[in-house]
Design a protein that fits this description.
It contains 35 helices and no strands. It is mainly α. Helix 11 runs antiparallel to helix 12, helix 18 runs antiparallel to helix 19 and helix 32 runs antiparallel to helix 33. The protein starts with about 30 loop residues before the first helix and ends with a helix. The mean pLDDT is about 95.
Length: about 650
């Protein structure tokens, strides 16, 4: 044993990562290719890889890597036919001088697309070309084995599977296929299975072949567990090889009630030219509970489309297709399938809800979105998620606070069922001036932290207390006001979170100073005015849910006025105005490094409106501080015309009336 102690040496600090430029700003097609692949690899939340591929193809429509990458992106999104021309364009450029190109990836991807499109002979040729290159040889031989097996050419298929293993000895798909082929040819697969399961003891297809060989199906089922995913995955491998009876055997072993098991069986029966059994399976799938059924594979588009084509009406298949295609960014097709689903079946609440999301986010049709959301709530009035999303939509459509509050108050049990929904109810209580009720609701409910909800319950807690304190100050009750203001400086345990470090207390400190001044305690008043006047002096942006607005600078200015420092006060107010006017016409965009958006609102936020509203809010605060009440009032009213629940404007509008 030898051990050397690591002594940390000073090293230069690396340069920070740079945000990705827009496609138009990229210098070369290579940069555009690398950008697109990076966005795909990291599943970026706000940047679209297709934009970079298409910009590159605009500059050079023959670029090999861009054509191949964009074609593969289309393939993964279920646009099979659309992907094929891009793979062919890449191959055309690849074979400009060399009929056997250096890389076989484009040929291999073309083979996948052609096979998915049902062009089996052309796929066979494409896969064969892909065997020329080492990096695609194993996978290409595997798919050649599948195509040969599907035609019943088991000996050819066995040869292809063996060649696949020569290039990649641990290719478990090829191993399980070879075991099945040996079984079909009446040969002994035991040695291969023993070796394969030593490599991967939990490879499900090999375990199935072992079960067929020795009859120990209970052991295989134990390892497969109860969820349908493993059964669907294994059955697809057998379908691709043309082993339909084995695929049915696998699916029949699944005890999960997932409708996709029946859809798969129906599809397999169509491949076996047994339409009656196919219809029976599809009919059972249509009648099954849709709970926890989330089709996600590209192959499942074809399976569900087969059900739609065979049944006179298949509302659930249309519904599942809509879900799957929306996930694949085929929005128009998804909407069409959901419309067909609700046309063919009454009471399909989730399809109406999904249509509401698509209508608002993709068609910019708020009126229709509300109609669909109302329908969903009417069909399933006891589902709190629908009520939550209806209120989210109502806020986006700028419905009045009173109307929204009345809707939530009519469903008290649902409102209490979810923290996020209950918090929206509390927010509306605050927006309508029912601060005592809001505070009581906050203090008697246990909140549980959730991603995207950080700081929201505590913000309403502070808002209610400060509004109550302001009312007490106006009524000449500074002691009661101080009680409320002191409570804002720490949070009760039931809110589920402590105070975030970026939450300022300038507003509370300012009003505490006012309270002590009313009580003739000038030393304490000065202490709190000094606290209120402290902190960052520069306004900042607010784009994300947990960004803190810079309205605390307004209270810095007010505190400086109370301290007899008018120049510092005017500086604060002018800072707010300057920032608001400078950024009022900025084009708002999410930062590249904001790789996730944890807010759980399904109706897209208008970040341009959010930015414009924020800038006008700061302008209004600056004008109010400078005594320009008419200008401030106009800006506050403008804010509320666009967002009736803009709490900053609601809190201060009374001051300028």
């Amino acid at each position: 044993m030898e051990y050397t102690v690591y002594e940390k040496q000073p090293e230069p600090i690396p340069e920070p990562a740079e945000p990705m430029k827009s496609p138009e700003e990229m210098k070369s097609t290579e940069e555009l290719y690398l950008a697109g692949t990076h966005l795909e690899q990291y599943r970026h939340a706000t940047f679209e890889p297709a934009d970079y591929y298409l910009e590159g193809l605009k500059r050079d429509s023959t670029d090999i890597r861009l054509n191949n990458s964009y074609g593969l992106l289309l393939y993964k999104r279920g646009r099979i036919k659309d992907s094929i021309p891009y793979f062919r364009a890449a191959i055309k450029k690849q074979t400009w001088k060399n009929p056997n190109p250096y890389s076989g990836e484009c040929w291999f991807n073309l083979g996948l697309a052609l096979m998915a499109d049902g062009q089996k002979e052309e796929a066979y040729d494409a896969f064969y070309k892909a065997t020329w290159s080492a990096e695609t040889q194993s996978s290409a031989f595997y798919w050649l084995a599948c195509l040969a097996s599907e035609k019943g050419a088991y000996e050819d298929a066995l040869d292809f599977a063996s060649k696949s293993m020569l290039r990649n000895w641990h290719n478990m798909k090829a191993r399980s296929l070879k075991a099945a082929l040996l079984r079909k040819l009446g040969l002994d697969p035991s040695a291969l299975l023993k070796e394969s399961l030593e490599i991967d003891p939990l490879y499900m297809s090999c375990l199935y072949e072992q079960a067929v060989y020795d009859g120990r199906f209970d052991y295989w089922k134990e390892k497969m567990r109860g969820e349908s995913h493993n059964y669907l995955e294994v059955s697809l491998d057998y379908v691709n090889a043309g082993f339909y009876e084995d695929a049915l055997c696998v699916l029949n072993a699944c005890k999960d009630s997932n409708p996709m098991c029946q859809y798969y069986q129906g599809y397999i029966h169509t491949r076996l030219n047994d339409p009656d059994k196919a219809i029976s399976c599809f009919t059972q799938a249509e009648a099954a509970s849709p709970d926890y059924c989330f089709p996600n594979r590209v192959e499942e588009i074809r399976i569900l489309e087969t059900a739609v084509g065979l049944l006179p009406e298949a509302p659930m298949a249309h519904y599942y297709l809509g879900n799957l295609l929306y996930d694949k960014k085929q929005y128009e097709s998804a909407i069409a399938h959901w419309e067909k689903a609700v046309e063919q079946k009454d009471g399909l609440a989730l399809a109406h809800r999904n249509l509401a999301i698509a209508c608002y986010n993709k068609l910019q049709d708020g009126a229709r979105a509300e109609k669909e959301m109302k329908t969903a709530c009417a069909i399933d009035p006891d589902y709190p998620r629908f009520l939550l999303e209806y209120d989210q939509l109502a806020a986006r459509l700028n419905q009045s606070n009173t109307e929204r509050l009345e809707r939530l108050e009519s469903h008290p049990d649902l409102v209490h069922d979810r923290d996020d929904l209950y918090l929206r109810y509390i927010t509306l209580l605050n927006c309508t001036g029912k601060w005592e009720t809001a505070l009581d609701a906050l203090c008697t409910h246990r909140f549980h932290p959730w991603e995207g909800g950080e700081g929201k319950a505590s913000a309403q807690y502070r808002y209610a207390l400060i509004r109550l304190a302001h009312r007490e100050l106006e009524a000449g009750r500074p002691h009661d006001a101080l009680t409320c203001l002191t409570a804002t400086l720490s949070y009760p345990e039931n809110l589920g979170e402590g105070k975030l470090p970026n939450v300022p207390d300038n507003e509370a400190h300012y009003y505490m100073g006012i309270a002590y001044r009313q009580m003739k305690e000038e030393e304490k008043a000065t202490e709190y005015f000094l606290l209120a006047a402290s902190g960052p002096q520069e306004p900042g942006s607010v784009l994300y849910y947990n960004d803190q607005p810079s309205d605390f600078i307004f209270y810095q200015g007010l505190a400086n006025l109370e301290l007899g420092r008018p120049e510092a006060a005017r500086k604060a107010f002018h800072q707010l105005i300057f920032y608001g006017e400078k950024h009022l016409f900025d084009e708002a965009a999410y930062d590249f490094f904001a790789v996730s958006l944890p807010e759980i609102e399904v109706f897209q936020d208008n970040i341009q409106l959010r930015s414009t509203q924020y800038c006008n809010y700061l302008r209004a605060l600056g004008a109010l501080g400078l005594g320009e009440k008419e200008k401030a009032a106009g800006l506050f009213r403008g804010l509320l015309e666009k967002q009736a629940d803009y709490q900053g404007a609601l809190a201060l509008l009374d001051r300028v009336k």
